[in-house]
């Protein structure tokens, strides 16, 4: 097990556990990644995965086994994933101190060294 790259709050972990149960995927890994695209050039990806590769960073927080691919890891150091409820519903929030520019949607960003592949919104 590697040391934590991200922090997954208890609220986010509870939501992920609910999603796993709803999808019949208890015991799956929570994969958090960076992909090219989005308004600012990079976008976050979250999925449930049954497998991890030898190059994945792997750790556990709040009962969730988290995997992050080797390329995404440096862009995610010290990122906090939370889940917030509001009158308009709930959603994941991502606070990434490495993001230099973020899109209003909160799921697209770029860093000082990586601009990704911006798309039209």
Task: Describe this structure as you would to a colleague.
The protein has 121 residues and is mainly β. It is built from two helices and nine strands. The protein has a single domain (6-110), classed as Sandwich (Hypothetical Protein Aq_1857, Chain: A), CATH 2.60.300.12. A six-stranded mixed beta sheet has the order 4-5-2-3-9-8. Strands 1-6-7 form a three-stranded mixed beta sheet. The termini are far apart. The model has no long low-confidence stretch (mean pLDDT 85).
Q: Summarize the amount of helix as a percent range.
A: 10-25%
| Major sheet attributes | 6 strands, mixed
Helix tally equals: 2
Q: Which band does the percent of strand residues land in?
A: 35-45%
CATH class: Mainly Beta
Superfamily at the CATH H level? HesB-like domain
Which strand order does the major sheet show? 4-5-2-3-9-8
CATH topology: the name is Hypothetical Protein Aq_1857, Chain: A
* Bulk shape: globular
């Amino acid at each position: 097990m590697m040391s934590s790259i991200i922090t997954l709050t208890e609220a986010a972990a509870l939501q992920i556990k609910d999603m796993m149960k709803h999808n019949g995927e208890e015991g799956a890994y929570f994969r958090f990644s960076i992909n090219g695209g989005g308004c600012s050039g990079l976008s976050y990806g979250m999925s449930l995965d049954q497998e991890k590769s030898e190059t994945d960073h792997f750790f556990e927080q709040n009962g969730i086994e988290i995997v992050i691919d080797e390329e995404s890891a440096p862009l995610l150091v010290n990122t906090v994933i939370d889940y917030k409820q509001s009158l308009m519903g709930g959603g994941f929030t991502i606070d990434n101190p490495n993001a230099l520019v973020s899109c209003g949607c909160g799921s697209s960003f770029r860093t000082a060294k990586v601009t990704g592949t911006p798309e039209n919104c």
